[in-house]
């Protein structure tokens, strides 16, 4: 038992770090630094650069599909270095969510058609899972797909579809057998978002951002060859996908960065003439959060080590999700507390078109909106209540 | 000992509730907040003239109804329940609350105008580096001829974009963070040398960064005695904190009510989510926090007229408690709602945002815990 | 709306305070100060003194039964003054639990037989409610009572019977109709604890104390005239009693005393050369607890004021139980933290017969045992989970 | 990076588990704790000779097996799981852990005797007013002829009633709470002038108040250099804290396991209480705290050989975290059990008591948070 990275791992870390330094798009960095909203091309630029670098955009993919063939530790290091450098994340919907489903259940044609462009950032995916009537109870969905020759005709409404406004393709759970029991009768369809009948409507969230959408489907015709796996067996794909969805959910490196930012804010604020990060009460709160994160990091590392030994990942992914999101949320809460009165101005470029002159210290800008936005993390991707149900059942046998 | 409202207070509450029910639905509010002005002057006029609440707690000799802190509590609770953005706290509780302590003609006239709904004021006390310390004043007022010359910068002055007069704390003596040497001035916002950057706040209000560059003030701009303003400002801010707690009471009650209602209607796994015991207990905890917050608000409100130490300890205890309740109840309400609770469209998200900002308004829970800790040793022993 | 006590209330408070000062038994005070375990007579001495003082032992009783006819505020003041002076509490089982049931449902003979000696401290009562198989689910009880002429023959086992080792009488829930539905078929019996077939066996709790017992009933013959209310209607009595049981459960005055004691311990301990009560972190914890208690006190006062206006007490009694016990438990937790290493010695005179020489500061003595013992408060009298269920249903309508 | 146990460590764990399963049931433990001695010397002998765990982490040249902190972790976890009261922590981890750092013949001989199970030692470092500060030493050792004269009082010296030798910190220079000037002595407990008041602790161990009145010590009683003991004592106490965390891991795992089992069997309202979602989620939180505590224990154990600052920061972070988990998991376990969880009869209540006392042993969570806060600024930046 030891904590040291091997010399190979250290060399790998240095390689990744250098690559990021030398290749990360300067114009994206500039926008990030200025706090500007990122557009479609900003997200894709880094994805494409990584894609051309021997599958670095798809760390989790097997070598046969173009993945880089990294060990679990290398994947961890890669994620860590990206978070450390604050690069734009590779959106998970294509690379980490639909791609594994296509690999596991797709036909050779489907693999050839969808995997390479997903790796190269040429196909932006969105997820059509949640419906207004079915949130945590995913299998309660009611979007209908009716077979009409070699097409399905799809009608229904999806919601909470992240960044659907940018998406080329979507993967959708639809009901193909309305009389079967809940989990049966569901199919898994890939859908061209430019198809006639697809309407994407923004949902503005409480922080003023346009990040999620409603997707309305009216008589959308989907070729049968865009169905993955058997008809009415889509729940198998869905469960498989959900098991993958929580990968990286712990967000340790991201939270480290958030805590660093917290120290920045706290070093600029003063209380009773002392810098806030020297204030015993606030320093205690930061220390407690740091320690929580330390525990989570080592829980994740223990899991990685088990994985490296070839053991399957356990239901501790629910633990990582719960604690990871609690820590992320707590970091934004403390940032808001640290910013004090300057948490209050609402100045970000936002969906309603405002773009105010900045006020207050740079580090405090947008802290409240970030706090509001991050409340989603304990709701999306299987709420933390659902995660606790999973642990109760799968781990404790309750 | 008596915790019941008087007949007048009950009438006041009912008429205000009725007025807001008719005029202050979520949609009208959203439009007002998104408008250029950011508020509805006609609501303000109606509050002054039709409902008559602006003068409820102000002296009869200045045109008010002569009520006290309990009347303010009644009004603020209803304003919180309807999520009113108009500046009752800033202009009536703080502005008139300060001005009524001075008997200069200008101060008396201003109170009368406030009661009539004709004048909006904002108190500029915070500064970019002062955090919540009201004594931490770098803005200076220096003698210049008969009058004064004002220089400095005030931060996040809530309601300033709507105000035509500002109350400003400025140092006429003493060093940064010294209690002595802070003076209070009443100035016109359009005076030469006053400039403001206006912006919305995350909870639907408006605020300004206000800069004073060589602003010339007449001798009568000074309220009360030179350098002696702080005890008054502290007292009025404590009244405002108690009022904020009352507003929080309305906000928290709505968060609980809306969440309970939602869970009875929302179905998952074939039954209302209200059936899930974990959600039930979490709502019970929301309810308990809200009840306890109401109790603390009563306590603080009823102790506003005790000695400065007793008043401040009671208010800080209440604000610390209520602030934390705002955070925990707000977070629980959003979590129980799920995704829908995070949308701009649902009224709940706006209650959540206001609750969040009440936590830090006029001093965060941490600030007030510190203040309570510092004061508790000076409290008289219980009888 | 105002917070002031009336001049009459202040005069009453002074009268109570003086009476306690002048009449509290010195030998009991001495035992309490020395931390000695109290015996039956120690509990009863103060009860009897109060009983002879115009029904001061029974503040909640109506005047017609000998109660003092106090207002809710006066009752509050009386409780407050007793807690402030640290008097031995009047045990609730007789005065506050069985007596109201007898008043509400008993016959004139039963009232005449049981109420006066209960008031005067001549009849020590215990409660036979819980059973090994029925804790929070009280109605699941299985102790049987079979009619035999003008007697019932009772067989079964009760548990968690507080201080049964001292009791003269007990009130027991027994099943008189084994085929009826759960809540039906239960009767409420008064039982002479010296009856043949009654065996009291100690349960030693984790703090080493003998406070609760098992009560075994083997062919115990109970005269029918000792049944309260109708046969098979005992659940009505039980529910009535449970509604009364939570009276005074907030324990505000007791918690104030606990916080005072906490300040004593903290003023004697030093950390980094500073008295612990001057230490910002520990002082913050004490302040937070004090503020919690303040909120609870005003919630109780609001309830009293409603009661004084003649409105019935609401289900906020569950709130008082939950917060009251949380505060009591937190106070013992902080006392243990304050005592530091001297929380560790186990020195109290205890059931296993030890009586060690004291070590460590006086104020730290027994803090761990108190902490262990107080864990019961969130379990007994309807666990805090049950209280939350009650609020969810009765207040929130869930 | 590797979190797996070696083959030797797995064997060590299995044989210790097997031994404890056969000898250390709740009833035997209860009897031993209630006996005059308060422990079972035969268990100790068996641990030394049959199971061979006492030397697992001690140097081979002194008769040990040459293992390291991970071996100690393995042993302590199992001792925690079985709630062993015998003084492995006090005598082996702390006693031998300190003694092995000195090459005097007496120290070497003592380690060999400890490994053989023939010697029990206890470290007397705490004093009545020192709280958890190891530098806060008032006990003095003054030069007297060739040797020393020891005076002072040590508080709550765990395992002292069972020990024949004591390791004692005493001030040979410097002022109270100064790091410099603390020396370490190895003395016979039956030396003239040593007196002890023995008593049980609430978690089933035994401890003493030890008084030294003019105790005459030979020159060879001093271990290492005069006044330089503190870095060694700090290092060994950090090893002991990591070991305590490991013990907590065993205790916490049992609290979770026993609670989960109980809820599956206990019926209320016609169904197992395991069906109630509120209890399920509370058990999930117990499980999460336990898993996270195990992770922190791994982390701290594997960082024991880094620099003093890194070691101390890691250990304090772990002890603070694990201590809080002990409190919250223990409280939850008792609450979920209900009344039965509070009885002396049920093993669970003893796990609860041990968990409670681990929180404050060798420094409370508050102490370790302070220590971590003080150290974190000195930590090297992450690579």
Q: What structural class do helix, strand and pairing data of chain A support?
A: alpha+beta
List unreliable stretches of 5+ residues of chain A.
349-354
Return the CATH architecture of the largest domain in chain B.
Answer: Up-down Bundle
Q: What is the CATH superfamily of the largest domain in chain B?
A: Butyryl-CoA Dehydrogenase, subunit A, domain 3
Number of strands of chain B: 10
Which stretches of chain B are low in confidence, meaning pLDDT under 50 for 5 or more residues running? none
- Largest interface, counted by CB within 8 Å of the partner chain's CB: C-D, 54 and 47 residues
Strand numbers in spatial order across the main sheet of chain B: 1-4-5-8
Q: So how many helices of chain B?
A: 11
CATH architecture call of the largest domain in chain A: Up-down Bundle
Mean pLDDT of chain B: 96
Secondary-structure element string of chain B: HHHHHHEEEEEEEEHEEHHHH
CATH class of the largest domain in chain B: Mainly Alpha
Alpha-carbon Rg of chain B, integer: 21 Å
CATH class of the largest domain in chain A: Mainly Alpha
Nearest-integer average pLDDT of chain A? 91
Percent of residues in beta strands of chain A: 15-25%
Could you say which overall geometry of chain B the principal axes of the C-alpha atoms support? globular
Tell me the overall shape of chain A: globular
Amino-to-carboxy terminus distance of chain A: 33 Å
Chart the SSEs and their pairings:
The complex is a heterotetramer, with two copies of chain A (398 residues) and two copies of chain B (383 residues).
Chain A lengths: L6 H17 L2 H8 L6 H13 L19 H14 L6 H14 L2 H12 L5 E4 L15 E5 L2 E12 L6 E7 L10 E7 L5 E7 L5 E14 L3 E2 L5 H12 L6 H17 L1 E2 L2 E2 L4 H29 L7 H24 L27 H8 L9 H11 L4
Parallel strand pairs in A: 1-4
Antiparallel strand pairs in A: 2-3, 3-7, 4-5, 5-8, 6-7, 9-10
Chain B lengths: L6 H17 L2 H9 L6 H11 L17 H14 L5 H12 L5 H11 L5 E4 L15 E5 L2 E12 L6 E7 L10 E7 L5 E7 L5 E12 L4 E2 L6 H36 L1 E2 L2 E2 L4 H26 L5 H30 L9 H14 L4 H12 L7
Helix pairs in contact in B: 1-4, 4-7, 5-6, 5-7, 7-8, 7-9, 7-10, 8-9, 9-10, 9-11
């Amino acid at each position: 038992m030891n904590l040291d990275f091997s010399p190979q791992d250290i060399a790998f870390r240095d390689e990744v770090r250098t690559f990021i330094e030398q290749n990360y798009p300067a114009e994206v960095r500039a926008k990030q630094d200025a706090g500007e909203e990122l557009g479609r091309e900003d997200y894709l630029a880094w994805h494409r650069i990584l894609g051309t670098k021997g599958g670095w955009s798809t760390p989790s993919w097997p070598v046969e599909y173009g993945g880089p063939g990294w060990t679990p530790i290398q994947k961890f290091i890669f994620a860590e270095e990206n978070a450390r450098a604050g690069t734009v994340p590779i959106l998970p919907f294509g690379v980490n969510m639909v791609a594994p489903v296509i690999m596991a259940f797709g036909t050779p044609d489907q693999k050839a058609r969808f995997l390479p462009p997903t790796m190269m950032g040429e196909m932006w995916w969105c997820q059509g899972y949640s419906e207004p009537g079915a949130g945590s109870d995913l299998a309660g969905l009611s979007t209908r797909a009716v077979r009409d020759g070699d097409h399905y005709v799809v009608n229904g409404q999806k919601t909470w579809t992240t960044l659907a406004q940018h998406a080329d393709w979507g993967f959708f759970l639809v009901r193909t057998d309305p009389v079967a029991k809940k989990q049966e009768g569901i199919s898994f369809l890939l859908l061209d978002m430019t198809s006639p009948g697809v309407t994407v409507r923004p949902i503005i969230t409480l922080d003023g951002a346009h990040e999620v959408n409603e997707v309305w489907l009216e008589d959308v015709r989907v070729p049968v060859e865009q169905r993955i796996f058997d008809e009415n067996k889509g729940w198998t794909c869905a469960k498989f996908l959900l098991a993958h969805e929580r990968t990286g959910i712990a967000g340790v490196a991201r939270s480290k960065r958030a805590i660093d930012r917290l120290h920045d804010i706290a070093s600029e604020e003063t209380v009773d003439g002392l810098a806030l990060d020297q204030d015993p009460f606030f320093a205690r709160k930061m220390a407690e959060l740091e320690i929580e994160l330390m525990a989570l990091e080592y829980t994740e590392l223990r899991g990685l080590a088990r994985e490296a030994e070839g053991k399957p990942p356990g239901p501790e992914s629910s633990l990582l999700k719960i604690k990871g999101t609690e820590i992320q949320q707590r970091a934004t809460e403390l940032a808001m507390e640290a910013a004090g009165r300057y948490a209050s101005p609402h100045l970000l470029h936002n969906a309603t078109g405002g773009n105010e002159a900045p006020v207050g210290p740079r580090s405090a800008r947008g802290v409240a909106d970030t706090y509001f936005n991050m409340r989603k993390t304990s709701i999306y991707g299987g709420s933390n209540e659902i995660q606790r149900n999973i642990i109760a059942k799968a781990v404790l046998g309750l | 000992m008596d915790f019941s409202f008087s007949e007048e207070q009950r009438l006041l509450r009912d008429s205000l509730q009725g007025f807001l029910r008719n005029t202050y639905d979520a949609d009208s509010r959203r439009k007002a907040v998104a408008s250029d002005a950011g508020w509805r002057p006609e609501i303000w006029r109606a509050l002054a003239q039709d409902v008559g609440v602006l003068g409820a707690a102000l002296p009869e000799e200045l045109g008010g109804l002569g009520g006290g802190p309990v009347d303010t509590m009644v009004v603020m609770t209803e304003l919180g329940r309807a999520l009113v953005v108009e500046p009752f706290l800033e202009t009536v509780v703080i502005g008139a609350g300060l001005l009524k302590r001075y008997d200069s003609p200008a101060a008396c006239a201003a109170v009368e105008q406030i009661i009539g709904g004709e004048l909006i004021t904002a108190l500029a006390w915070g500064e970019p580096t002062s955090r919540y310390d009201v004594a931490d004043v770098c803005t200076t007022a220096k003698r210049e001829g008969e009058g004064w010359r004002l220089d400095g910068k005030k931060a996040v002055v809530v309601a300033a974009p709507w105000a035509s007069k500002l109350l400003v704390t400025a140092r006429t003596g003493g060093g940064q963070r010294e209690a002595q040497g802070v003076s209070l001035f009443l100035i016109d916002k359009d005076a030469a040398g006053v400039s403001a950057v206006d912006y919305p706040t995350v909870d639907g209000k408006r605020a300004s960064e206000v800069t004073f560059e060589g602003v010339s003030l007449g001798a009568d701009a000074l309220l009360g005695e030179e350098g002696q303003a702080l005890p008054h400002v502290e007292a009025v801010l404590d009244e405002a904190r108690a009022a904020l707690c009352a507003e929080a009471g309305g906000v928290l009650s709505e968060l609980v009510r809306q969440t309970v209602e939602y869970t009875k209607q929302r179905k998952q796994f074939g039954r209302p989510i209200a059936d899930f015991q974990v959600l039930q207990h979490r709502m019970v905890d929301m309810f308990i926090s809200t009840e306890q917050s109401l109790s603390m608000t009563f306590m603080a409100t009823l102790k506003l007229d005790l000695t400065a130490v007793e008043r401040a300890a009671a208010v800080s205890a209440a604000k610390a408690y209520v602030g934390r309740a705002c955070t925990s109840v707000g977070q629980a309400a959003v979590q129980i709602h799920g995704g829908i609770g995070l949308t701009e469209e649902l009224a709940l998200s706006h209650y959540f945002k206001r609750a969040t900002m009440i936590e830090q308004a006029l001093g965060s829970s941490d600030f007030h815990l510190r203040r309570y800790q510092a004061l508790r040793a000076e409290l008289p022993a219980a009888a």
